[in-house]
Amino acid sequence: MNLEMQRFKAEFFKALAHPLRIRILEVLAEGDKSVNEIQTLIGSEGSAVSQQLQVLRAKNIVSGTKDGNKVIYTLKDPMIIELLAVAKQIFNNHLVDTITILDKFKEDEEVPMPKN
């Protein structure tokens, strides 16, 4: 069972491993959207957005529902919103650590070297 769960997680994270897919999920976290709405909000070509939506659909991360001649996309699981928030917090933690290290380097550079 653990191996199956690990495979699921690996495939899930692979599906998220593209900046445009992450942006699409961020847009859908704000509410259901049509492909045209997603394209407009992201500022990307239709073919690129459609291609990435297909990947997300294939991995069961988003779903599409026909509405006339439009397809409306929605997140399959609202916990995706929490996952994105946690990822942002992890990024911020790394950023804080990096800034702290840089500040320490600056302090070390400001200390005058002893003269021989």
UniProtKB/TrEMBL annotation:
The keyword Phosphoprotein does not apply. GO terms for molecular function: DNA binding; DNA-binding transcription factor activity. InterPro entries: ArsR-like_HTH, HTH_ArsR_DNA-bd_dom, Metal_resp_trans_reg, WH-like_DNA-bd_sf, WH_DNA-bd_sf. Keywords: DNA-binding, Transcription, Transcription regulation. CDD domains: HTH_ARSR. Residues 1-95 form the HTH arsR-type domain. The keyword ATP-binding does not apply. It comes from the Bacteria. This is Transcriptional regulator. It comes from Neobacillus mesonae. The lineage of its organism: Bacteria, Bacillati, Bacillota, Bacilli, Bacillales.
